């Protein structure tokens, strides 16, 4: 699995990625994500397509150390989408491992994310990876933290 920039050559294939119907309440589409990124440059959005070989299988977007806001100067996993055809193959875990390594290499001591609670929520996935609740709520979402061990 590897990360690729989204270009004119792969944009349509990445925009075609979809989660399962029962996950739509928890994960926005790639199209909506890219629109949010364009509308909120102050969040310092950073996004990539997830590829397995030459096949796009997912999408990831972070708020990369924004200069202001509730997550000022921190790395926040804003979106993680694995296409419904490729779920349950370890791709989400692999993607999160790569993202955590990139964030840690940038000098971070933690990676934040959040989720909307509800039936079928992604909390079990994040918990298995090592995320813990921070006690914060952001716009109705529970904020989680993955702490990196000291080097």
Automatic annotation (TrEMBL):
Q: In its UniProt entry, what is this protein called? A: GNAT family N-acetyltransferase
**Sorted alphabetically, which Pfam families does this protein's record hold?**
Acetyltransf_1
Name the Gene Ontology molecular function terms of this record.
acyltransferase activity, transferring groups other than amino-acyl groups
Q: Which UniProt keywords apply?
A: Transferase
Q: Which InterPro entries match?
A: Acyl_CoA_acyltransferase, GNAT_dom, Sper_AcTfrase_N
Domain N-acetyltransferase, which positions?
Answer: 1-149
* Gene3D superfamilies referenced in this protein's UniProt entry, alphabetically: 3.40.630.30, The crystal structure of the spermine/spermidine acetyltransferase from enterococcus faecali
Organism superkingdom: Bacteria
